[in-house]
């Protein structure tokens, strides 16, 4: 496979002004008539027209109505004898394709007897020959023809302008999209679907029709998605002045989808997982995810669709920015400062457990990559989540109002265009000429070009004689593939200083007047810089990187006492949580390094690993009446095995697992009375509402129940597992029910088996719930190697299918990606399983296979025997002939 390089970008040789598509939909053989108007691009030398195509049968090509000669070259359709000059000409192409055979779920495919499309990034070429690149923007008009009984609903982008009956029981619908768009935003849907409808009038006074299309039985689960859509529309108008620019906005759900959702203009297509919710079938997390994904896709309507990407190297232009927007949307809806902090902590947790490892591994790439083999492999946490952090830093460097001004300028300059990441930062900086962003613009842009997670090392020295505190911040960034050395970044470090007893201290930098502020942003631009604060009576405790002001690793030698002070008193909720995580991490790492294996705790033993100070601090948080339940749940959750592994140079996954489990058991036992209290105090009262406050209460009571069942394993107590079973049976909502089931499964109690059986019977007709049932079992804590055989058995279950991405993910990914203690087996059985599944899936769906292939990205960090076994497993996959480009790129990079 050949790499595509960003520096090779050239403008297209032709423009496509308009496209008229006619589909005769048939699962076995769909006929596609594509009539385009093209123009040669006068800015580039005259050359043949090369159109992309994949898995198409070509029947006819006409230029200005006449037959013409053409040739095929590597799948591309090449036309050499086109009219001279730069006048528009008509090109008509007739092809057929086979949607029912399309298991890649890219292009036009069939799911549950309905037709769907997925065109981003390069799926449109599987529908017709085209200039399949985002900088070619055209006007679309689309006619769909199909059997009326089987496909009563026919949808495409834009407005319905005509519809009616045809002969032979067929009917048609014609759609015209009023906006020009790149072909990756094209969509069509046809099938037996029903819609929840909502008419709205926006602030601007325009009327719109909103529709959420689902299969007939699912209509009752669409209210939350519709509410989320209405909230998204209102939010974008209020916060950024960006209105809905369509008369009709449609969301359609399908259960066969490669990712979460797709922002096709006016016709978003969603994985059912991010649309369907009822209190009986969806958890609080599902409700929150639906809100954020509906928001994300809607916000793309401006950031991505109105202004799109020049080329796929600029993917983060739309994705990083749109993630930033959906994160802000969720925070604004959550409301209170504490609920905002909870959302921020959750987002940072994802960044640190998924993106930091990516940035340190073989697939590391800049937010704006320099090359790729398969673009589908670059829809990564770096492009999305780190990209969002890079936008967030800009937001913080210019301020909230400054950022809104910058966005306004961005749309004034680029509406209707396909642009680059540079264009975006330039607009934000130009709208804020005196900001630190504008001052350091070229250097700031290194966040787009340099891969790797920067490390900031902080040391503070207090001088009693001058009553001053000198804080030295130094930065470095590890080498990444293709980038041996790095230049310094612009790193905004938000800081506060606390007294030893936890009081916030006024900040006064040497040579500056006192402002009275207790928090400020230091902008680190050099490799090392010292900031001196004066007027301090004693050595302060620094609270650095507040609210996680930059996507970096902060190295700082806190004493336990300092961390306990921050945990108890910091005014920055993020750093309070962070202090608790640092304490827990320190304990875990020391215990992993100690030669002895952790002793198993008993009902009355001291918390040997955790120590009394940590346990008391956790108890204080749990009992603190001033803190929200959601925040407590985050503080009391120990750092994940993946996050712990990232802190170590050499990883013994079994030891990490054993230590973390032992820590959890100690915490469960030592706080037994407090968990009981937490359970009693946080019961649902009144009906179910998915808001952040009640969700937080359910999260904490669910955690308490889980901890009480873990404790019961040691004490032999039967009361709490019994209560968990009772709750599992009686719960009025899926969150409480699933938490109770999880408590039984996670503690390995005998009641887990009957509960799982009962759960399956109850929800056998709810695919999304059955996904949870599979995922829970494949992700359960390993006991003596029991999980791999369970996973193999689950794959034999009549409900299992490798072809449905959600189902494949629920079993295989839950095991390989989310259950390190069970996956990293001494006997390499987990890796053998992984390599078999990667190969098997690759023949069906390369995109999903390539995701799974990344489960062993970090193999070089593993201790033996895992390291050797992992390399062998990857090599086994790499040795296969006929691998997709997707999987080939991932395994080649892993081995390089
Ligand atoms: N833009 C799509 C992702 C497409 C992935 C293609 N492999 C969804 C999103 O980010 O909103
Ligand atoms: Zn997106």
Structure write-up:
The protein is built from 28 helices and 33 strands. By secondary structure, it is an alpha+beta fold. The strands form nine sheets. Strands 2, 3, 5, 6, 9, 12, 14, 15 and 16 form a nine-stranded mixed sheet that branches. Strands 18-19-20-22-21 form a five-stranded mixed sheet, covered by helices on one side. A four-stranded mixed sheet has the order 31-27-26-33, with no helix packed on it. Strand 7 and strand 8 (76-79) form a beta hairpin. The protein is globular, with a radius of gyration of 28 Å. Zinc ion binds at residues 296, 300, 319, 322.
In short:
Aminopeptidase N is involved in the degradation of intracellular peptides generated by protein breakdown during normal growth as well as in response to nutrient starvation. With 896 residues, this protein is α+β, with helices and mostly antiparallel strands.
How would you sum up the global shape?
Answer: globular
Low-confidence stretches: none
| Fraction in beta strands | 15-25%
Count of helical regions: 28
Specify Rg, calculated over alpha carbons: 28 Å
The helicity comes to: 40-55%
> How far from one another are the termini?
15 Å
Q: What's the CATH class of the domain at 308-449, please?
A: Mainly Alpha
Second rung of CATH, namely the architecture of the domain at 308-449: Orthogonal Bundle
Number of E strands: 33
Task: Summarize the biggest pleated sheet.
Answer: 9 strands, mixed
Structural class call reads alpha+beta
Domain Peptidase M1 alanyl aminopeptidase C-terminal: 560-895
GO molecular function, one term: metallopeptidase activity
Family: Belongs to the peptidase M1 family.
Function: Aminopeptidase N is involved in the degradation of intracellular peptides generated by protein breakdown during normal growth as well as in response to nutrient starvation.
């Amino acid at each position: 496979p050949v790499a595509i390089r960003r520096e090779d970008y050239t403008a297209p040789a032709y423009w496509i002004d308009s496209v008229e598509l006619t589909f005769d939909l048939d699962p076995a053989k769909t006929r596609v008539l594509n009539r385009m108007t093209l123009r040669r691009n006068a800015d580039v030398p005259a050359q043949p027209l090369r159109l992309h195509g994949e898995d198409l049968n070509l029947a006819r090509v006409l230029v200005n109505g006449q037959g013409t000669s053409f040739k095929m070259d590597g799948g591309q359709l090449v036309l050499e004898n086109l009219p001279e000059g730069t006048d528009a000409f008509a090109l008509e192409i007739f092809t057929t394709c086979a949607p029912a055979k399309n298991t890649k779920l890219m292009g036009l495919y069939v799911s549950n007897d309905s037709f769907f499309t997925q065109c981003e990034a390069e799926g449109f070429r599987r529908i017709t020959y085209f200039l399949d690149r985002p900088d070619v923007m055209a006007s679309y008009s689309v006619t769909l023809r199909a059997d009326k009984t089987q496909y009563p609903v026919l949808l495409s982008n834009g407005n319905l302008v005509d519809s009616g009956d045809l002969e032979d029981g067929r009917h048609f619908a014609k759609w015209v999209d009023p906006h020009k768009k790149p072909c990756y935003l094209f969509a069509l849907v046809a099938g037996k679907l029903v819609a929840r409808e909502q008419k709205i009038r926006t602030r601007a006074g325009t009327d719109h029709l909103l529709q959420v299309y689902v299969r007939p039985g699912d209509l009752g689960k669409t209210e939350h998605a519709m509410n989320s859509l209405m909230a998204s529309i209102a939010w974008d108008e209020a916060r950024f002045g960006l209105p809905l620019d369509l008369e009709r906005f449609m969301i359609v759900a399908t259960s066969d989808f490669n990712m979460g959702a797709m922002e096709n203009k006016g016709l978003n297509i969603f994985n059912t997982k991010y649309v369907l919710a009822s209190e009986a079938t969806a958890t609080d997390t599902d409700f929150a995810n639906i809100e954020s994904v509906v928001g994300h896709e809607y916000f793309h309507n401006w950031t991505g669709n109105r202004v799109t990407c020049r080329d796929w190297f600029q993917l983060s232009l739309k994705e990083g920015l749109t993630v930033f927007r959906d994160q802000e949307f969720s925070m604004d809806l959550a409301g209170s400062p504490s609920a905002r902090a909870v959302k921020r902590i959750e987002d940072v947790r994802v960044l640190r457990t998924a993106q930091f490892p990516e940035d340190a591994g073989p697939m590391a790439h800049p937010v704006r990559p320099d090359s790729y083999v398969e673009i589908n492999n670059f829809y990564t946490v770096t492009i999305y989540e780190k990209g969002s952090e890079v936008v967030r830093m800009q937001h913080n460097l210019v301020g909230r109002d400054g950022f809104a001004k910058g966005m306004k300028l961005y749309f004034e300059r680029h509406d209707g265009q396909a642009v680059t990441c540079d264009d975006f930062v330039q607009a934000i900086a130009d709208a804020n000429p005196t900001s630190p962003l504008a001052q350091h613009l070229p250097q700031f842009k290194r966040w787009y070009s340099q891969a790797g997670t920067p490390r900031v090392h902080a040391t503070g020295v207090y001088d009693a004689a001058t009553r001053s505190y000198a804080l030295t911040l130094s930065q470095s960034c590890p080498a990444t593939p293709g980038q041996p050395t790095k230049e310094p970044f612009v790193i905004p470090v938000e800081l506060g200083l606390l007294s030893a007893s936890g009081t916030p201290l006024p900040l006064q930098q040497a040579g500056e007047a006192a402002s009275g502020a207790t928090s400020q942003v230091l902008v680190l631009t050099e490799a090392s810089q010292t900031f001196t604060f004066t007027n301090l009576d004693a050595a302060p405790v620094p609270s650095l990187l507040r609210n996680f002001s930059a996507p970096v690793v902060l190295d700082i030698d806190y004493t336990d006492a300092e961390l306990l002070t921050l945990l108890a008193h910091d005014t920055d909720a993020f750093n309070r949580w962070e202090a608790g995580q640092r304490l827990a991490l320190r304990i875990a790492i020391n215990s992993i390094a100690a030669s002895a294996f952790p002793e198993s705790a008993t009902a009355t033993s001291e918390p040997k690993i955790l120590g009394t100070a940590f346990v008391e601090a956790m108890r204080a948080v749990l009992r603190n009446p001033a803190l929200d339940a959601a925040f407590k749940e985050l503080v009391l959750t120990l750092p994940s095995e993946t996050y712990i592994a990232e802190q170590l140079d050499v990883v013994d996954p079994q030891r990490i697992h054993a230590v973390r489990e032992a820590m959890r058991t100690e915490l469960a036992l030592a706080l037994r009375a407090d968990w009981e209290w937490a359970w009693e105090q946080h019961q649902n009262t009144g009906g179910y509402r998915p808001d952040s406050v009640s969700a937080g209460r359910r999260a904490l009571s669910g955690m308490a129940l889980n901890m009480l069942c873990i404790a019961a394993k040691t004490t032999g107590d039967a009361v709490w597992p019994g209560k968990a079973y009772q709750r599992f049976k009686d719960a009025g909502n899926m969150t409480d029910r699933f938490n109770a089931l999880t408590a039984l499964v996670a503690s390995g109690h005998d009641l887990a088996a009957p509960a799982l059986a009962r759960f399956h019977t109850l929800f056998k007709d709810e695919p999304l719930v059955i996904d949870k049932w599979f995922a829970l079992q494949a992700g359960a804590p390993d006991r003596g190697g029991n999980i791999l055989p369970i996973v193999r058995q689950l794959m034999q279950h009549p409900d299992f299918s490798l072809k449905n991405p959600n189902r494949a993910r629920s079993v295989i990914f839950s095991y390989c990606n989310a259950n390190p203690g069970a996956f990293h087996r001494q006997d390499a059985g987990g890796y053998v399983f992984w390599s078999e599944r990667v190969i098997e899936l690759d023949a069906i769906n390369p995109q999903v296979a390539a995701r799974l292939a990344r489960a062993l990205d970090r193999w070089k960090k593993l201790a033996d025997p895992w390291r050797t076994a992992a390399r062998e497993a990857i090599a086994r996959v790499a040795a296969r002939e006929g691998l997709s480009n997707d999987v080939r790129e991932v395994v080649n990079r892993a081995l390089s």
